[in-house]
Amino acid sequence: MVAGIGMLASSGSGQTASAAEPYKIVNTAQIMGAGGIDYVYADNNSRRLYIPRGGEVQVFDMDTLKPVGSITNARARGVAVASGFNHGFSSSSPIVMWDSKSLETIKTIPVEGRPDGILFEPLTERIYVFSHSAPNATVIDAKDGAIVGTIDLGGAPEQAQSDGNGHLYVDIEDKNNLAVVDVNTLKVTAHYELGEKGDGPAGLGLDAKNHILFAMCHSQNCVILNADDGKILATLPIGKGTDGGGFNPATMEAFSSQGDGTLTIIKENSPMSFEVEQTITTKARAKTCTLDTKNNQIILITTEPALAGTAADPAIATPPQTAAATPPTTTNQTAGGRRDGRGGNTGPSMLDILVVGR
After folding, report:
1. Is CATH 3.30.300.30 the right assignment for the domain spanning 24-334+342-357?
2. 92-103: b or e for each residue (b if 16 or more CB lie within 10 Å)?
3. Domain edges within the chain
4. What is the average per-residue pLDDT within 197-205?
């Protein structure tokens, strides 16, 4: 471990030594529906929020959290949007490609494997669709939807991040490493081992400017690495059941959402100093997240059963959104373990959208 790394860990809500105002839940919305959920995706350019649910992808206004439409023929796990072409893509079988302005389907793209994670890579303007079975990655031209190639990543991929300069980093969950891909050649150039504390990487954050990776692992650790050579810089504790993460360069903070109903914020004080800045209580199973870059807010999703005679009654199609000054008290209804299928309830349920900010 590199000398001088800060290891101030917070085990509950509240501030550490940081002078920044603490994070809290600043807005919520509930929408009645049915079907499981998985990844949530923020298209920051169009201010739209995409949530795959059941047999469709639901689309919301990111600022009001009100529904604006849906892609009805996509039983997807995730979404990526290539804003320069106004094209959206679902990680489904087949892939659905749509016009991100009108939400009208353009075409469907047959693919092999079991599509799961998905990412738009900006340098080559391609969509990467990830699968736990071969082929591990299918690469698609975002302009016309043509399949460019496939990649064997050497294991089961989860979240990925691009540095915009030719390198793609991918969590390999079952091998406890990160695969490094050359996006120009579509070749794996390295595997970064995560060490004894890095079991089951799922969420991933990248500080592209300083070349630092934050691998969020099921071992309840964030393993922090040098993106150039894979050297481990630090290991910090996170919650149980991570399934999403990221990095906000505007605040120099990495974040990890966990199924145990917590969101961990890690502060990068310098490229050699990191600390757990805060742990926020969210809701059980709120294990995937996305970043609103305009407001520096983190958006999470979960579902809860629809109970007759309550605010989750099916008669209430779209309850009004509310803003919570303090995080809600929830029962930990899940162990928050590894992904074993699309998350949440498959029957009638309330979709919860949680916005965390300062």
Report:
1. no
2. bbebbbbebeeb
3. 24-334+342-357
4. 97
